[in-house]
TrEMBL record:
Recorded topology in the membrane: Multi-pass membrane protein
Lineage: Eukaryota, Viridiplantae, Streptophyta, Embryophyta, Tracheophyta
Annotated source species: Aegilops tauschii subsp. strangulata
Transmembrane regions: 75-93, 113-133, 145-165, 177-195, 246-266, 298-316, 341-360, 470-488, 508-529
Name of the protein in question: dolichol kinase
One GO term describing the cellular component: endoplasmic reticulum membrane
EC number in record: 2.7.1.108
Amino acid sequence: VLLGAAHGGAPRRLPLRRARRARRPGPPRGPARAPRGSRPRRRARGGPLRRGPFLPAPPVQDKVHISSRPGASSGILLGATTLPCVMLARLIQLSRILPTDPNGAQEFAYLEMQYWAVSISCASVLAFFLWHLRQSANNEISKALKYGSLMVVLYLVTFLLFFLLKTDGGLLAMTKNGYLLCHGVAAVILIKHILEKFPSCSSFGEGLLVSSGLVVYFGDILARTLSKMEVSASSGAFIHTPGTQSEIATVIQGVLLGLFLLPLLYKSSLQVWVYCRTLGKQRTQAIEKRAEKGTGSAVFYVSLLVVLLFLVPSWTRLVQGLEVHPFVWVLNYMFTNSDERLLLCAYWIFVICVSIRRFYSISKQSKTERILLRKYYHLVAVLIFSPAVIFQPAFLDLAFGAAFALFLILEMIRVWEVYPLGHTIHQFMNAFTDHRDSEILIISHFSLLLGCALPKWMSSGFNDRPLAPFAGILSLGIGDTMASMIGYKYGVLRWSKTGKKTIEGTAAGITSVLAACSILVTLLASSGYILSQHWLSLSVAVTLSLLLEAYTTQLDNAFIPLVFYSLLCL
């Protein structure tokens, strides 16, 4: 105002902020601005502060960065309850034959120990999540913390009650508890490794399911190994492994054990090779990279041969007493009185070749939605697996194990870019990925295969529910596929405003699974099976499983078959 009056004009109003700034006394200005290179740079709008030469470096954070799969909820409640519910359903199913089976008590006791191993693993991983997420203020994280805390408390209280009621104390009880706690520690180490090496590849619930499942599976391998070793005479007091495991299950366990140990052997062999190449020379990053590039493929193939030719047969000979190589045993099994198996193999090869060639060309040339293209593969899984479950169930167990081993080898070649197949496999698999696959791991084919295989593997041995081995094929191949296709084309009413699942799709999935069950019951009755499950309980199991498919944002190929299987076993 004063400036305007001094120049003889009308008083000029300044904006309120500038007027206040003008009235506010401040320090005197310097004679000159600092040189450009010595001034701290300004922070870009919406971006982080860029450090100049005089700004200190940000402090190093020692916390493990946990990042879940984008677009998915935490899934902690579902991941923490799925495997314990599966084991509990198996216990209920096995308890129905205890009065009549003389070996049922030993198998029940071992399955009960596996149940507590799963529970302790889930509780330990939940405690690990709580320890890392307790300082987050996100609403989703807060809900996960609440559910996780509740689950940990329930697990610990239940285990304490079981320990007080069923054990007599002493050294045996302490040894059993130590063995179970080792599962928990191993699960925490494994989930930490998964989240560090494969960030954004899974949600918290999916990581919990994978880590606890792998720990229990390898715990079973360790228990069977210790029970056969002479040095483990003391371990026989608390590890009672049933002697009813088939040779097919032992061969599958041996091959998977070798393939899961293959990364350790490959990495250690590669490091030894690089060290020997650079021994006595100046080790630079360029030399290490060139050595690893030139010899990585050869080291991988040599490590694979060592595992398959030496490690796997040694373990199968120790555990099952196989005198021949597992691959020779598989060939003898296939070509001995096996016209039906050879015809089934020819049928599988024909269906797989035709479907891959057809769908791969469609994915490259057509504008078909990726989700529909992937559901066509679910229908192909129905065509492949359904005849084998009815006519050759034991051979299907072996085929599932061979397919999973092949998928593991191909994924290792793709991830490590092993010459000459790494780049080709990567280009081929990218044609069938979706938003749930990351740039590091492609897990869709693994989840579909295991979703169909796990109910069949767990149904080996005693099974009074003929539809239980079909849990993965029915829920994924028929229910999930029909729900997605009908919901995509005709769905109008959505379950939620933000979700894509529709009520019409869920109704179509439930109807299609019930129709498929009626057809399967007729086929199984002609083969000698008797349906011991009421249609009301079957309808409840189908409805709950398809409602879970409509509600969850987790990897449905992993959770829905296990939930459906546990409901069928009740």
